[in-house]
Design brief:
The chain is an alpha+beta fold. Helices cover 37% and strands 19% of the residues. The longest helix is centred in the middle third of the chain and has 16 residues. It is globular, with a radius of gyration of 13 Å.
Length: 98
């Protein structure tokens, strides 16, 4: 079941584009890890450069959260930005309860 869910997540992430470049983040190999534990998902991603504008990092993170949370079988989603000078702050912002 987790393999099928991972495949759905990977497919959904193809719809998330880098807003500056206009290319899917999957094509740019920006998704580092997808962890699945009983429907609780953690997606780690990075940007093309550690000093990319924070607004692009936030947009990508929010888009990841949006497309993954809409998949059947996903109970929760946490998104982690890695290797960015504001990674901790951006990760916290993206994962705030709405």
């Amino acid at each position: 079941m987790e393999k099928a869910l991972k495949n759905k997540i990977e497919k959904a992430l193809e719809k998330v584009y880098d807003p500056e470049i206009g290319v899917p983040i999957t094509e740019m190999k920006l998704v580092d890890k997808i962890d699945i534990q009983n429907g609780d998902i953690i997606v780690d991603y990075h940007l093309s450069m550690p000093y990319c504008p924070p607004m692009f990092a936030i947009k990508i993170g929010q888009d990841i959260k949006k497309v993954v949370s809409s998949i059947e079988g996903v109970k929760s989603i946490k998104v982690n930005l890695r290797n960015h000078y504001l990674a901790d702050q951006i990760t916290e912002l993206i994962n705030k309860e709405e």
